Each structure stands twice: as C-alpha cells, then as structure tokens.
Amino acid sequence: MVQHDDGRRTADERRESILRAAAQVFGRRGYAGATTDQVARAAGISQPYVVRLFGSKEALFLAVLDQAKTELLAAFRAAIAEDRASDSPAEHLFVVLGDRYVDLARERGVHLSLLQGFVQGAEPVIGAAAREGYLEIWRFLREEAGFDVDRARDFLGRGMLLSVLLAVDLPVLDATSPEAHELLVAACGPKLPLVLDAAS
C-alpha cells in the first residue's frame, strides 16, 4: 500500500490497521467485551473514524471474521499448491495444512476471532456468518483438500483444540505444568516453539 509523502496512511492502510487491531481486541475480549473505542486506540485511529468506516461494532466484527476466514483459506490454498507441486503422498496434506493452521498462531487474531465468532452462534447476524464460514471451511477440506469425512472431522477437531488452547492462554503454563506441555505438544507438535513465541 502506498503512503502519502507526508507520512499519512492511505484509507486502505487505515482499514487494514483497524481490522488487525480489531482481531486482537475481539480475540482477547470477545464480542460483548470489546468496544470500538478499544479498537480505535489499538489501531491509533479515532473512534468516530472506526464507526464511520464500518458503521457499527457488529459490522466491524463481521469484517474481522471474514478477514480471518479469508486468511485461513488463503494459507490453506497456498499449502495445497505447494504440496501438490511436490508430488507428496495424499496423507501428507493433512500434516501440511495442520502446520499452516499452527503457523497462523503468529496472527493470534485469526484463531481467536474465528473462535469468538463461533461462540456468538445464538446472535442472528453473527451466528449466521460464523456458521456459513465454518461450512465454507468444511467444504474447502472436502472439495479442495480432498479429505474424506473422517479426515475433515479430525482436522477441524485438532484445529478447534488449538484455538481453545490459545483462547485460555495455555501456552503461559507450558514451562510450569507437565499436563499443559503435553497437551500443547499434542496440539502443535514440532511447531510448539512458534506457538509459545507468538503467545509471549
């Protein structure tokens, strides 16, 4: 994105900054606990500008959910393209996509925003968007990744486990709790150092 000569951010850069900040704020505080003022402060932008750009907290949250889903699917599609180019066995794709999902822990807002969206399932607008997003991920796993029902279910289950572990901040217990370490290793495998680094 291009910045103006005087250092001001473009409208696209401000929008991206707001979405990144909102992903962190909603991920940490949940939909009900987050405010557009908190998002604005995190983005270094005025609260009226956030509302002017997105219209409401709900619309901002929906934009964050859509961006998180888009980032997730883009990472998965890139992984599929790389994996298929390498002529790896079909079983290898499960591991490759799992690694990409763990890699997204660097962008904690992705995991936590999706999880917060799923928690809002009873909300008419957010719940509908979250359900459709989840089904889109399911369709991706079945149609584009070529997973059978059992493999797709296992993949989503492991992904939800990692998202929940991040949501409850389990990585902070890694050094002091053998059970926490064991569970984190089970969820992250050799990518655990990346998750611990992202959580610190």
From TrEMBL:
Pfam families noted in UniProt: TetR_N
Among the GO molecular function terms of this UniProt record, one is: transcription cis-regulatory region binding
* Range of residues in the leader sequence: none
Q: Which residues form the HTH tetR-type domain?
A: 12-72
Location of the DNA-binding region in this protein = 35-54
Q: Which SUPFAM superfamilies match?
A: Homeodomain-like
Keywords attached to this entry: DNA-binding
Q: Is the keyword NAD assigned to this protein?
A: no
Give the domain of life.
Bacteria
Q: What is this protein called?
A: TetR/AcrR family transcriptional regulator
